[in-house]
Specification:
With 299 residues, the protein is α+β, with helices and mostly antiparallel strands. Helix content is 24%, strand content 24%. The strands form three sheets. Strands 1, 2, 4, 5, 7, 8, 9, 10, 13 and 15 form a ten-stranded mixed sheet that branches.
Length: 299
Amino acid sequence: MENVEYFNRYTGKVETEQIYGENFLRWVYSNPLGKLSLEGLVKRAAFSKWYGGRMEAATSRERVLPFIQKYGLNATEFADSPENYKTFNEFFYRKLKPGARPIVQDPGAAVFPADGRHLGFQNIDEAEGFFVKGAKFTLEKLCGNRDLAKRYAGGAIVLSRLCPVDYHRYHFPVSGTPTKPTIINGALYSVNPLALRKNINFLTENKRAYTEIDSPEFGKVLMFEVGATCVGSFEYTFTPGVPMQKGSEKGYFKFGGSETITLFQHGRITLAADLIENSRIGRELYARMGDLMGRQPKG
């Protein structure tokens, strides 16, 4: 079976992802019976609502410490003690201590909006494919709006995938004034590469929401939050129409893997070299919120 590998910016090594619920994912997306359950149940909001309810139950707090130990999470950066979380979901969308995620301060730098595994392409129209060569989706389908999609044609795109083990709050990648989120309803497929290798268009079929950020440095920047299996909603903590600083919190996902997608207009950003290099061969880059994603082009 093919593993999910990524390049870790901090260790400088290619590493293999320890996938939460891997056996279930492989069965649902590869087994004929699993695919029947995917279409009949797993992709539907009712399934995610049911599972999310389990993570809100008082008994779910018993999962917290074993989860931290199994996946080697650094509890010293949590804003609260692991023993104080009343449910698993409360732990899941935990806050971190101030300074746990330093933000690149250079005004000409854009930062990753979330912890996770990232893919980036300088020109979405020329991208060979994300996880499978030739597998593409259209901006019009992603945006659900032809005029909005035209605004970002030929621009850069960054897909940031959050695993269940990651910090699950998302932040603004640039400074600017955000609009009110526009929600596009859809299914709730997994966004793990095991699923996206089967169909990259799960990203354009899933429930999602977008915000346009008017940035003095980067022009119009479009940021999506994408739901996934066991993530039926996104919670927002920002105020639309009020200028936000790069790295300010935008909101959080509740239980499950999820994704943000950031789009820049053509010529407004040069993505980081290690992001481009790994994405070119279909391999994600692991980096954290606040780390360098790209810079304003020189000149």
